[in-house]
Design brief:
This protein is of the alpha/beta class. It has 10 helices and 15 strands. It is about 40% helix and about 25% strand. The two termini are about 35 Å apart. This is Gfo/Idh/MocA family oxidoreductase. Keywords: Oxidoreductase.
């Protein structure tokens, strides 16, 4: 049984809190938030204890692991505190919005041999995991082209966008991680172009809501990613991998599989309303992986080093949006 402290009681903290409380091998011992009322509400729902005292959260005599799901600008400080206390950590992305600070935190955690994982949960989506297995097994030959789509149903609030780091670091970064994981290769360069079609005010933040990104892999294979913040038909996410001898795809998922037939017309169920409805189950599977690794001493991933690589791609893509050029990707040494 792993005694967990959950750091952060906002929306995503609520998701993780429910999963932690439901896990048979987890005791949700503490819920921390700077807002005591919010922490108390979440803790009461799951029979846990609320706290605003980080000393309780990072007490290795009372806690076996922490789940960092607080605001983005606090991930790094909490990860450093976990490393200092020698407490394993599962952390929401990113480690820090500033890549240099993220590298410094990861290097510190590595000196403490901290078991840590970044919650790139899409790796734990059933369809994507099978797609990656097929590619890795060589069933479709060598990878030549990967097509990825991430299309959200609605613009997030501007106050969120202002602190998100931009589309490349916030939305597309999940697919940078997937591209590395699926291909087994580190992209060498990236070209990104984008527009503000759904929300022109994003330009004030140097951000875009509609983008197309091309990654060049070693050997010349390509990855193409289209991302939009707002579409009119639900949430659309899919991946296709073309190999030298075949192709594998994880198709868009509908909310249901019922088709209604009438004269001259077939009506199918539409797509999921939002991103959370589409990938909800992957959060549970990611937690299962982390807990199992702690219980059995198995390898943990995505690792902090892998998260840094995805963030390095996002940094280069963000530069490309401004420069209009193919940018080299500089990975942390």
């Amino acid at each position: 049984m792993q005694r967990f402290a959950l750091i952060g009681a906002g929306f995503i903290g609520g998701v993780h809190g429910a999963n932690l409380a439901a896990h048979p091998d987890v005791d949700l011992a503490f819920v921390f938030d700077i807002d005591l009322a919010r922490a108390t509400d979440l803790a009461k729902r799951h029979g846990s204890r609320a706290t605003t005292d980080l000393a309780e959260v990072f007490d290795p005599t009372a806690i076996d692991a922490v789940f960092i799901a607080s605001s983005t600008d606090t991930h790094g400080e909490h990860l450093r505190a976990a490393a200092t206390a020698g407490i394993p950590a599962l952390c929401e992305k990113p480690i820090d919005l500033d890549l240099a600070r993220a590298v410094d935190i990861v290097r510190f955690a590595e000196t403490r041999s901290l078991p840590a994982m970044v919650d790139f949960n899409r790796r734990f989506d059933r369809d994507y995991a099978e797609l990656q297995r097929v590619v890795t097994s060589g069933e479709i030959g060598s990878v030549e082209l990967i097509q990825m789509t991430s299309r959200g149903p609605a613009m997030p609030p501007l106050e969120y966008v202002a602190v998100s780091g931009g589309q490349m670091r916030d939305q597309t970064v999940h697919f940078f991680d997937l591209a590395r994981w699926i291909s087994g290769l580190d992209p060498e360069s990236v070209f990104a172009t984008g527009s503000t079609l759904a929300e022109p005010r994003l330009a004030e933040y140097g951000d875009v809501d509609t983008s197309a990104v091309t990654l060049r892999l070693p050997g010349g294979a390509l990855v193409q990613i289209d991302c939009t913040r707002r579409i009119g038909y639900g949430y659309d996410e899919r991946i296709e991998v073309l190999g030298s001898t075949g192709m594998v795809e994880a198709r868009r998922q509908r909310a249901g599989s019922v088709s209604r037939y009438s004269a001259g017309r077939v009506v199918d169920d539409g797509l999921h309303a939002g991103w959370f409805e589409r990938i909800r189950g992957s959060y549970r599977t990611a937690l299962d992986h982390f807990v199992d690794a702690l219980e059995n001493g198995a390898a943990i991933g995505p690792t902090l080093a892998e998260a840094l690589k995805a963030q390095a791609i996002a940094e280069a893509a963000t530069r490309s949006l401004t420069s209009g050029r193919m940018e080299p990707i500089e990975y942390p040494a």
